[in-house]
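Why this split exists: single-chain examples teach little about how molecules sit against one another. For that reason, every record in the complexes split bundles all components of an assembly together and asks for one structure covering all of them. Below is a record exactly as it appears in the raw files.
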Amino acid sequence: MITQTASESLVRDLERIVGADAVLCDPFELLVYECDAYTIEKAVPQAVVFPTETEQVQQVVQLCNRLGVPFVPRGAGTGLSGGALAKQGGVVICTSRMTRILEVDIPNRRITAQAGAINLDLTKAVKAQGYHYAPDPSSQMVSTIGGNVAENAGGPHTLKYGVTVNHITGLEVVLPDGEVAWLGGKCEQSLGYDLVGVFTGSEGTLGILTTVIAKLTPLPQGWRTMLAVYPRLEEACQTVSDIIAAGIVPAAMEMIDRTTLQAVEAAFRFGFPQDADAVLVIELDGLEAGLDRQMQRVLDICRANGAEEIRLARDEEERTRLWTARKKAVGSLGRLAPSTVTQDTVVPRSKLPQVLRRIMEIGQEHGVRIANVFHAGDGSLHPIVLFDERDPEEVRRVRAANDAIVKLCVQMGGSITGEHGVGVEKAEYMRLLYSETDLKAMRLVHDAFDPQDLCNPGKIFPHMEGAE
Amino acid sequence: MPSIPMRLRKQTGFVYNADTMPDIVSELKAVTTAEEGEGCTAYALDGCVPQTVIKPASVQEVRDALEVCHRLQAPGVVWGGGSHVGIGSPLQQYLWAMDMRGLASLKDYSPGDLVVTVEAGMTVSALQSLLSPHHQWLPIDVPLPDVQTLGGVVASQGAGLSCQRYGLPREWLLAVRVVLASGEGVKAGVGVVKNVAGYDLPRLFAGSWGTLGVLVELTFKVAPLPEVSLAVRSDVADVARLFELQDALNHPLLQAEMLEVTYGREEGWRLYCGLAGFEEDVRWQFDLLRERTHSEWAQIEADEVEWLRDRYLLASAVCRCRCVVPPAQTADMLVWTHQRFPDANLQAHFGAGIVYVWWEETVPDVQALRELRAQAHALEGFCVLEKASAEIKREVGVWDAVRGGVGVLRRLKEGFDPHGILAPGRFVEGL
Ligand SMILES: Cc1cc2nc3c(=O)[nH]c(=O)nc-3n(C[C@H](O)[C@H](O)[C@H](O)COP(=O)(O)OP(=O)(O)OC[C@H]3O[C@@H](n4cnc5c(N)ncnc54)[C@H](O)[C@@H]3O)c2cc1C
């Protein structure tokens, strides 16, 4: 664990920029910032600052540049791969006081907000006018739009609506050398290389986002939510493929496996059949006119694939209840084991049955229980390994099982991460996907933005031979 | 040493020192097909004819050819179907053209995953005909699908008729294979619909106009074909009505696939609307369209849609500009342009803020073109001079100034193309 105390002069200079009430340097208070929601690796920063304006961010970055001190952007700290960890110490620039919504522009379907604005607040600002900000990570009640852009966050509705990058048209950023630059704007097309696209998903390593211009998406006029129970997981997976093959793109298709169902059942008593192997939550949305026929088609497909029970939500209350099974699934797993660790990988949708079977085998081989709750429509998996962190031997087996899962997904043509990012957690796995030359190309991008390597250093890239 | 066509020296104003001219052709011929002679004139840009046309038949040949050009520091231009390659600042040096159409095979298609991988020289329509038996398509509705290659469309961020609904090609691009200027092959992205492993290099290469590397393979997410589609036309009585229409059409539940405004001296103003999806939805939206616009709408046939698709590109224009403004400023841009240039032809992707302006007979003077650009700026947009003589291009500037991050753009170009062999000086900010 890295601990470095900030020099008095650094603190004084920071206070001069943001004010004394916006700098933390007390070692005890700094402990809150020693990690994000990925708690395995920790490092205490020298100081944390809470700017309110872009100019303050710029001055802090300029100061860090002068002193050669690393700086790390941080939003709400809900990241799951250690992105906001101050790996090499330095100053954490936290956007939690940059929360203003700056403009709602309905005619252009754009919203402009400071980077620290909470995801859900964007939607709240425009809901009455019939719009929303579509990307909806499960953390949307707390995670910031800046953090979402930096991680290119996804959510249950990305199958139809896409991920964060599909919804961002402009960014104001403080580049690592202290230049404030507007990338993109409100237009659909941009000029020059697509720096908005490159910045999105760059995990805070290319500069500090201060303002975001995002697209607004019309709220769907109607929805149909259904839940189908299957005696065999393979049949649930086949249903997903058949729905897509029928030309229907549901807003969400979420799957819960047998292990998870047991926990959900114990907590909520939904009355699912004892032998249920999988539950599939399907939501269609769009214009009312076409929804019933689509729903009928989906129901036929579910039945044809052997669904033994189908529940339909007739109103908002029932819809919420159906979604409860999915949304509370991860939480209810706490009943089965004292500790859980959630993996985040992606595979081609058609490989789901094979991959899930193999994940079960991996669990058996390593003597750990694995539960699966996942975005089936995207092939986006979240295997959750259940264990007891007080047992070091079990922890070792959990790590080995996780490692095997990541490798399996890459072998199947998938990715090491679909939502949570690389951060520090998966940097070494980058070699599974990319060759030395591929990584060198990524490095060129990094160096074009941050030649001094001061902005959130030690992330994304695996350790290179010869590098310190 | 092969002689350099005289036209090259005269028209670029670039002075070659024949003694230091690298002999690229014989080296290229050792690794790939490199043609010389008459055939090269078809690849002229701004009046300059390249010394040779490279026609690689494999990725390895692309790599070997670029390795030669890189080593000899010989600049050139990558060609797809040639429909947009003319857009760019006049070249300083143009020794080779690389025609990518020999790389046009299907690499992988998994309909159940809605994912397809093809070589970059495949045309858009060739891909669509591979997808359509599975009732799928790549929602990129470009002007000349039989001519435009996927590599070219991605590299130039080609916007088509339905871009307001489906976005630009980058929204559908999952992964790429690229040959860098040095000849090294690079893979970026993964062929799954969600992936956040490392920087989004596919987005960097999309829209880089062939200045950072040569796209050789592309993986796209595709979509189910809509069940039905409907295209309709309405005449617009006068230009002021465009503002009313813009408001009327901006309704959250009207999710048109296409909204196109055209103006020609003969036919006047017209508005086209395309609706697609499930039959009931299309009917419902058509009712909404009529109710909101209070206009008469007539259904149009496929040939009129086709005309609409490539009209602005095929027109015998002496000068053409593309103005890009925030979507709700499209009517402003159209109206201003019409009032300032009553003779100009116009076409706008009305819901996407993209306005094409072109002149068929008289080229406007430089000052007038600058005014057009200033107007796009006033509306928080920009203006690209897509077609004009080399002199006008030099004087007005093809690309608009980039707002921020110019240093980053420059370092990207220097990093990816250190010897400046990929269309140097042709892109924004002289990159
Ligand atoms: C319970 C829970 C559920 C979750 N569900 C989802 C989900 O469904 N989908 C999903 O994609 N993720 C999910 N996540 C992960 C996480 O919420 C997202 O990655 C989110 O986008 C992080 O936002 P944040 O504001 O917390 O950022 P932080 O965690 O503070 O930072 C994340 C990264 O972004 C960088 N960063 C933050 N702000 C800026 C800025 N202004 N400029 C530049 N870089 C910046 C940081 O340096 C860091 O690398 C979940 C996490 C939790 C704890």
